[in-house]
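1st attempt posting a full record on here, be nice pls
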Amino acid sequence: MPAPKELDPTAGPAARFGADLRKHRYAAKLTQAELADRIGYSKSRIGNVERGDENPTRELIELCEQALGLDGALLTHWPAISGNRMPDWFRQWPPIERRAHQLTTWAPLIVPGLVQTEEYARAIFEGEPHSTPQQVEDAVRARIERQAIFDRPNPTQFLAVVDEGILYRPIGDEHVTRRQLEHLIALAESKWFTVQLLPYAARCTAVLVGSALLALENGVPIAAYVESAVHGRVVDSSDEIKRLVDRLELIRSAALPGYLSVQRIKERVQRGVE
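the predicted structure (as tokens):
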């Protein structure tokens, strides 16, 4: 009998669920066929779900919970699988993000979401009008889950061009902001992450239109996510993508190189976050 396929929990919500299901199935000493018999599904369906090739239904998850004697351990995956943690207009983006070989962003106001700490993200979502505590926590969890693309054996390459203002803009209390800057410094030691700081002295107005995130596959831009005050949108037309690439190149040309950017961030941390 061939060895079971090695699972990659970082491939997305369905893959994380599949890996967790297999873990609990093994703990219960059940084969896929035995679990399938207990819940009234086919063995191939269980196999597809465990490999992350198929999204489980809520019914399947609940039946697996009962069959494995669990109390909510698998259901915790449902919000991410169903997309309930994400607004409708954003759900198109994560699959693009996961398949990209490289992501590039510019951010004029805050640290990009893909490299935010949990507490930094929470402080941002808490500032949204009419947000409830549960909505805040769901949004934080969804943001942190997206960062799993950097836990792969071959992480997605990520370049972030950030405005100098992130060094001075307080998000949460001073400890939250400090830890976020320290997080950027630590990430910069990774081969997959590059940060470039756009200094005030560059007088680059091209960054002031708001943030955008470009996804590239084999070096070719395939789509972009553009944010606004109301909601974001996914851009995939070649003309719009070219305009975003041109803007990014202009911003990058005005930014400091990576090593100088990290040095500036370190200096800011050493002086203390005001």
